[in-house]
Amino acid sequence: MPESRARRQLAAGMLVAALATLKLLLHLYAGRYYGYFVDELYNLALARHLAWGYVDVAPMIALIGRIEVTLFGDSLSAIRVAPALAGAALVLLTGAMARELGGRRFAQGLAALCVLLAPGILAMDHFLNVNAFELLCPDGAAYNTMCSLPAGLAPIAGRTAKWVAIWSLAMVGLTARVARRQGRCERQGGNWHHGANGGIEGGYEEIVGALLDANADMNAKEDHGVTALQLAKASGRSKVVLLLRRAGARR
């Protein structure tokens, strides 16, 4: 590679790295000033009950939560480190993909900046949730595919390693998104049924207790008219039934 081209690539890489660092610092700073989101309470409870699958999520988020709690604790700042790192990695990966497509410093910086400023990605990388990590897997697979396709530019061993990486990322992605569906777990914002059904049917009293502490409406009904108390009774979760009755659930 000519020296001038190497300098351009280095400058582009430094720009993308700076944007990734900015995103990381932004999330680490802002994450301290917002309370726990309901999904985080659910994921923290799953982290204490590791398994190969759950009612509405696959195992990766629980494993990430367990690692974070073990290493850093369960404070707001601690549990939001991993999503912030995932967001920064996504910015780096986007810049690398732009480079593989032939983009120079401006193209790489623009691609990374678009990911940094995307409102949906900013929101997802703000708290501990599945969506903060699942984009890394298909994007990583796409990047390795880009690196592998030009057969004349890489040795056979290098291409083989990249295809192994592609399939590995695909499998990790499945652990982020594919879920075992059991019973009724319907997502409705702002009430019990965005995670509470999983806690009730799974018998996880801490999930229900955390939602009660957050002043969730325990008498809210899902689309089929079933309340949390009725679901707990139907699932045979006597401890959850007792917890709900003590909190004043009427039906």
3D structure, described in words:
The chain is mostly helical and 251 residues long. It has two domains: 3-133, no CATH class; 196-246, Ankyrin repeat-containing domain (Serine Threonine Protein Phosphatase 5, Tetratricopeptide repeat), CATH 1.25.40. The protein is 66% helix and 0% strand. It contains 14 helices and no strands. The protein has helices spanning 3-30, 38-47, 60-72, 76-79, 81-100, 105-117, 119-124, 131-134, 136-148, 156-177, 196-202, 205-213, 228-234, 238-246. Helix 2 (38-47) packs across helix 3 (60-72), helix 5 runs antiparallel to helix 6 and helix 5 (81-100) packs parallel to helix 9 (136-148). It starts with a helix and ends in a 5-residue tail after the last helix. The model is unreliable at 152-157 and 179-192 (pLDDT under 50).
Q: Which descriptors apply to this entry?
A:
251 residues; mainly alpha; Serine Threonine Protein Phosphatase 5, Tetratricopeptide repeat; elongated
Quaternary structure: single chain
Radius of gyration: 22 Å
* Mean pLDDT over all positions: 76
Number of helices: 14
Q: What order do the SSEs take from the amino end to the carboxyl end, as H and E?
A: HHHHHHHHHHHHHH
What share of the residues lie within helices? 55-70%
Given as residue ranges, the uncertain stretches (5+ residues, pLDDT < 50) are 152-157, 179-192
Gap between N and C termini: 72 Å
